[in-house]
Amino acid sequence: RNGLRALDMLLMSHEPVDLVVVMLGTNDLKTFFNARAKAVARGARTFLRQIKNPFLYRYKEPDILMVAPILLGEAIAQTEGECGDFDEESLRQSKYLGREIQTVCEELGVAFLNAADFAHASPVDNVHMDETNHGRLARAIHQTIEERKKGEGQ
């Protein structure tokens, strides 16, 4: 379940790649991992650095859009229960995650979008988006990509 292991093969087998959109981090906040937002962002940095590895490409390095995940729902601890995958600390760390990932993106010169600005978790499980929120996030990602394409053409 470590996407980094398959990343090189995926990028090289789909070359030339114009754009890579990455969204990760929510599952890293599970109680099992006991991870803090800063540590999750360091993992994202490793992932982004690998995508930026110029030795992977015969053509040009792809553009990257990093999308920080939505926040966990406020009722996540109650929804999950005492033995659940997420707890109050997971919720607290999810509130810092966007900012920490944005800092990494700024360091690496990678485009950033915070999904939490456009969508939120469904009250059904306080983790996943419902259809409406998937649509909101899809439109935000599409708009961001289109704006970046326009900026490159000028």
Structural description of this entry:
Strands 1-2-3 form a 3-stranded parallel beta sheet, sandwiched between helices. It starts with a helix and ends with a helix. Strand 1 (19-23), helix 2 and strand 2 (63-68) form a beta-alpha-beta unit. 49% of the residues lie in helices and 10% in strands. It has a single domain (3-153), classed as Rossmann fold (3-Layer(aba) Sandwich). Helix 1 (3-13) packs parallel to helix 2 (37-51). The longest helix has 23 residues, at 131-153. It has 154 residues and is mainly alpha-helical.
Q: Unreliable runs, pLDDT <50, ≥5 residues?
A: none
Tell me the number of strands.
3
Discrete helix count: 5
Using the 3D structure, state the CATH architecture: 3-Layer(aba) Sandwich
Q: Which structural class should the secondary elements be placed in?
A: mainly alpha
Largest sheet: 3 strands, parallel
Helix content: 40-55%
How are strands sequenced across the largest beta sheet?
1-2-3
Shape: globular
What is the CATH superfamily label?
Answer: SGNH hydrolase
What number is the mean pLDDT? Answer: 94
Q: Give the SSE string.
A: HEHEHHEH
Total tally of structural domains: 1
| CATH topology title | Rossmann fold
Radius of gyration equals 16 Å
- How much β-strand is present in the residues? 5-15%
CATH class: Alpha Beta
Report, as a whole number of angstroms, the end-to-end distance. 40 Å
